[in-house]
Amino acid sequence: MARRWLVTGCSSGLGQALAAAAAEAGDEVVATARKPAALEDLRRRHGGRILPLALDVRDAEQCRNAVAAAVDRLGGLDVLVNNAGNGVFGTVEEVGDEELRDQLETLVVGPWRLARLVLPVLRAQGSGHVLNVSSLSGRMSFPGLAAYVTGKHALEGMTQALAAEAAPFGIRVAALEPAGYATRYGTSLTDAADRSALYRDATEPMREQLRGMAQLPTVSRPEDFARDVLRIVAADTPLPVRIPVGAGSLDSIAAAVHAGAEELAAVRGLLDG
Ligand SMILES: NC(=O)c1ccc[n+]([C@@H]2O[C@H](COP(=O)([O-])OP(=O)(O)OC[C@H]3O[C@@H](n4cnc5c(N)ncnc54)[C@H](OP(=O)(O)O)[C@@H]3O)[C@@H](O)[C@H]2O)c1
Prior knowledge:
- By secondary structure, this protein is of the alpha/beta class.
- The protein has helices spanning 13-24, 40-46, 60-74, 97-125, 146-166, 185-188, 200-211, 222-234, 249-272, and strands at residues 4-7, 28-33, 50-54, 79-82, 88-89, 128-133, 171-178, 190-191, 242-245.
- Strands 3-2-1-4-6-7-9 form a seven-stranded parallel sheet, with helices on both faces.
- The protein starts with a strand and ends with a helix.
- It binds NADP nicotinamide-adenine-dinucleotide phosphate.
- NADP nicotinamide-adenine-dinucleotide phosphate binds at residues 8-9, 11-15, 33-35, 38, 55-58, 83-86, 106, 133, 135-136, 178-181, 183-185, 188, 246.
């Protein structure tokens, strides 16, 4: 069955690979990017199956226009993938109000708004998917990535609420938790304006690791992500609400869940004694 997709952040990386794979599978994809010129190659390779649109997810009017245009041109929608994302690098003390707001606009407010706009369409059909691309950072936290981690944790909280709210209408919702894909994510992080030498020792190893992420030997390919998302959308079994994908994501999250259980045991020891 051919599906109709709206995917954000298709200028590169996971979004671009997903749009290409869905089009190759015979689906129709509204592929969006802040600069639509970045979608030209996708459109050339996949012809009429890719509909390029301008969308900065922080812009409410562009979000409304994108959903309206997608529904108008495709006659409906089956899958929304909130994939667009970026990161500001800095500690809690270093990240300023505006930088934090901007980070949350991209990682939380934009995806929330797009879900709100798409839900009536999916509800009327009685089917569809909302997939929010979170991160390993939606479950774990890392020094220097406070704003990004906050955004991804918030996105997961919203996803879990939405999954329960939308299920009675036949709408399937999940957070995808990527880690370790070779994309430009690690190099596209911007530094907080007020970086301080005080935190360099605590945060620089993480900064270096992210810069070199795409070159790690254990890295996964964006095409693997795309293949997994197509499988997730085609699955006829109930979906887990949070789905780790990519090199080491599941193992890292399993270790974090185990550490969380140990932490709870320590809390019992502290408060029951
Ligand atoms: N790669 C990984 O291993 C990994 C791990 C954890 C989470 N993720 C998540 O996966 C998603 C895709 O990232 P990626 O790895 O494919 O990195 P990427 O290649 O840097 O792609 C990120 C995409 O998001 C777009 N974007 C950023 N801010 C936007 C905004 N305000 N409005 C619309 N588009 C915006 C970028 O567009 P421009 O070209 O306009 O900047 C780009 O197309 C992100 O949500 C990221 O947090 C990836």
